Amino acid sequence: MTKNSLAIAAFILLASCGQDASSAGDSAAAAQSSSAETELSPAEMGRRIFSQETCATCHTVDEGGANRIGPNLFGVYGRQAGQVEGFAYTNALAQSDVIWDDASLDAFLENPQGFMRGNRMAYVGQRDAEKRAAMIAYIKTLTSDAD
Ligand code: HEC
Predict the structure, then answer these.
(1) What is the CA radius of gyration of the chain?
(2) Could you tell me the pTM of the whole model?
(3) Please, where in the chain does CATH 1.10.760.10 lie?
(4) Ligand 1 pocket by Cβ (under 6 Å)
(5) Contact 39, 33 (CB under 8 A)
(6) How many A from CA of 46 to the centre of ligand 1?
(7) CATH superfamily ID and name for 40-140
(8) pLDDT tens digits, residue range 13-40?
(9) What is the DSSP letter of 89?
(10) Which residues constitute the signal peptide according to the record (predicted)?
């Protein structure tokens, strides 16, 4: 369901609960403004960019999530590269001693092949440093002690 159809559904629900149309209108407006980019935290921006950049096509992010084309990314921040059980990494990644922190993730996401020759992550790289920073802020939240 899209955001708009959710807003419409909320409108119908509220209207049918006997609330007046103006409060339903307010909640639809609130649903709209919560998606305004200016209101978003870096991590929330990063979550969106993560799906826009198709990372989510290859990577699940939930605890215990399946490996897809790429490994599950839960808890990847702060960990050595190539540690997900059951994922067939390339030697380039499995044998690297990179720890995924701000600097290494930034370099990797800017230019995966340039940062780690021989890895097989099929992603061209993100040139916009702000977008990378937002994605990294999001990746940091993928841990059980995020909050
Ligand atoms: C086409 C599929 C694909 C896309 C798109 C993709 N990845 Fe990957 N990713 C992979 C694969 C495959 C690996 C493992 C590479 C290897 O073993 O050489 C990987 C590895 C990683 C790793 C290292 C994981 C570890 O356990 O060391 C991180 C972090 C990562 N990807 C983040 C991202 C982010 C963020 C994006 C979006 C900007 C993204 N990936 C987009 C397939 C993908």
Answers:
(1) 19
(2) 0.79
(3) 40-140
(4) 53-55, 57-59, 69-71, 73, 76, 81-84, 89-90, 92-93, 100, 109, 119-123, 135
(5) yes
(6) 15
(7) Cytochrome c-like domain (1.10.760.10)
(8) 444 444 444 444 454 444 454 555 568 9
(9) -
(10) 1-21
